[in-house]
Amino acid sequence: MYQHDGEDVFVIDAHVHLWDATEENIQHEGGEEFIQCFYDYHTTFTPDDRQWSIEEYRKYGADRMVEDMFGNAAVDMGIFQPTYLTDFYEEGFNTTEQNAELAEEYPERFVLNGSFDPRDGDEGLEYLEELHETYDVPGVKLYTAEWRGDSKGWRLDDEEAFEFLQKCSDLGIENIHAHKGPTIRPLNRDAFDVADVDDAASSFPELNFIVEHVGLPRLDDFCWIAAQENNVYGGLAVAAPFAQNRPGKFSEIMSELLWWLGEDRILFGSDYALWNPDWLVEEVMEAEFLQEHRMEYGVEWDLETKKKVMGENAAELYDIDLEAKRRQFQDDDISERFGLEDHYASGEPAPADD
User: Fold this and answer.
1) DSSP characters for 148-205?
2) Which residue in 24, 25, 87, 269 has the fewest CB atoms around it within 10 Å?
3) What does DSSP assign to residue 263?
4) For residue 285, what are the contacts with CB-CB under 8 A and spacing of at least 6?
5) What is the DSSP letter of 351?
6) Which residues are listed as membrane-spanning (predicted)?
7) How many C-beta atoms lie closer than 10 Å to residue 167's C-beta?
8) Burial tier of 152 (Cβ tally within 10 Å: 0-12, 13-18, 19+)
């Protein structure tokens, strides 16, 4: 657990991946463009001494992911958000089945989400049922700009998409994570437009719509929608690393989110391995709002707000008992591997990062 101002903060990284972008797995030029664009984001918002080589970045593997996330106790749990991209990558970029190998090894530390694509029709509905039956997924990650043959995307408010959202509702899959915001070469930015969230959220009030990347660069559109729909949440992946080298922009984004949505509907996410929580969590926790934003918006980035954003809000959506988890982590495999047993037992601060 991260310690801040003498108090423990349980951190749930609500947006992580275990991907394979090796040249052997790329079957379409879009796959190479995609990982190169990811790497550009990585190097732009990562401190110079923490940047990876492109070779490391293509495929880092399960062991490194576990160490990056939990080795210095910056993160206590992670939520897998799959990204299939099967037109670009022969075996997929990171599918539910691939993520499951690690999630099933450490089920106490990871939440495994599924996915759907309404262009798959009846086969897609059957696949969603299969994911539910096999893994009991509590959520799905959706990529509306994914290419499929001649199609360069789909909309959440399509009639076909509504069939899948209804299936989610029927199966009890409550958390709908949608990538809405920044484009990734060669995908279409308009296919990531946040506008289609509004009708979907209104039509399925029993579901939670977590808009990943808070709609950036369309933050205003996202905030106006979220203000209307109480079941719309903001995921901070991509927004969070602004804390590192654009602190004024981070202050502005967070002030807007807290003013429009309040402190109960914002979730931290690193988007690992785009960025590494072993340094990003500290950057976000130690960030300060500009005085002009505090005066204009009347919001604060105080300890209670940080606790909610960094973990409590995700725990609420995923029915995670944080105190029970803390007790469990006193002697789980991860704590044993990294020597964190006393850390969870006593609430002592995390070991210093190297």
Assistant:
1) BTTB----TTSHHHHHHHHHHHHHT--EEEEE-S---TTS-GGGG-GGGHHHHHHH-T
2) 24
3) T
4) 2, 4, 9, 306, 310
5) P
6) none
7) 17
8) middle
Tell me the CA distances in angstroms from 80 to 15, 16, 214, 242, 291, one per residue in order: 6, 5, 18, 22, 36
Distance CA 354, CA 338 (A): 14
E-strand stretches of 200-265? 208-212, 232-235
- Crossing angle for the helix pair 61-70 and 96-105, to the nearest 10 degrees: 60
The strand ranges marked E within the chain are 2-4, 7-9, 12-16, 77-80, 110-112, 139-142, 175-179, 208-212, 232-235, 266-267
Radius of gyration of the chain (CA): 19
Instruction: Spell out the domain ranges in the chain.
Output: 2-341
Cα dihedral value 132, 206, 226, 316, nearest 10? -70
Residue 336 and residue 281: Cα distance in Å, rounded? 22
Q: Which fold has domain 2-341?
A: TIM Barrel (3.20.20)
Task: List the end-to-end C-alpha distance of the chain, in Å, as a whole number.
Answer: 17
Whether 92 contacts 84, CB under 8 Å: yes
